[in-house]
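# step 3/5: fold
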Amino acid sequence: MKTINDDTIKQLIKWRTFKTNQHAVANQLKLSDDDAQQELLNELIEHRFKKYTATELAELVATHDNNLGWAITYSRLDIASKHFKSLGKRAQMEHAAELEDVATGIIKLADDNGKTTEISEFKLQQVVAQFPTDKTRLFVDMTLRYGRLETMAVLKLNSKGYQRRLRNATSYATKHRSKFDLVTDKVRDRQLYVLNSLNELDAIINETKEGSIQDWIDGGHIKLVNEILADSDVRYQGAVLNHWETASNKDKYAFIRECINAQTKAQEWLDQSNEAIKQAGVSNEA
């Protein structure tokens, strides 16, 4: 479908399901409501609504067709997925606890008691992707993001239906714990942090990023530097750690060589981990 009637659009954007997903897009991508509305409309028109004629779509919107409601929800998920997949390489290299709010998609998971837990969008999508069907993935994604009441409202579930879905999802996660461990393992998080940190250092050394090596060390990497120094041939380690500019060139080169070695090892570990995830049947594509 190449065109959509203006009256149909006006009805569509007033639909509660559309508004709920529009606000979700705005919150996830840090957009204004108007921009989020346009993003959602574009995604629907270009993909989910292509199979309908203008007349068919007008009728479905007028009756608040349930399948059309699902199409809106899935379009919202598609928008988020495309956005964060574009950040995929960066997200894989960043430790979940150190991601920057806007650039990499830190979100707050809220429970029904008002408690929140911060997690990266990339990490959440990895966890959700472990579930076997689109239907379950959507349920888990919405439950983690918005809690029980919002999920029940959007998916049109009563309390009994919600609890049944929750039991099924919990049972699956328990039964296939090894799959989930692959993407929630603290060792993996540590390797992500090491790789991201050393990639940042590499960018400073190659002058593709502003900053000095001493600023990088003092800016939260002292523990990592000490670990690298312990495995290095650096003679005067205190100078490298605290007075980089005055350290000898020999010690600087020795430290950088060890950083490159640690960077390579972290990348190799993550490559093997990613392959293991793929072998376990994990896919980030719905």
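# step 4/5: annotate
The mean pLDDT is 79.
# step 5/5: archive (pending)
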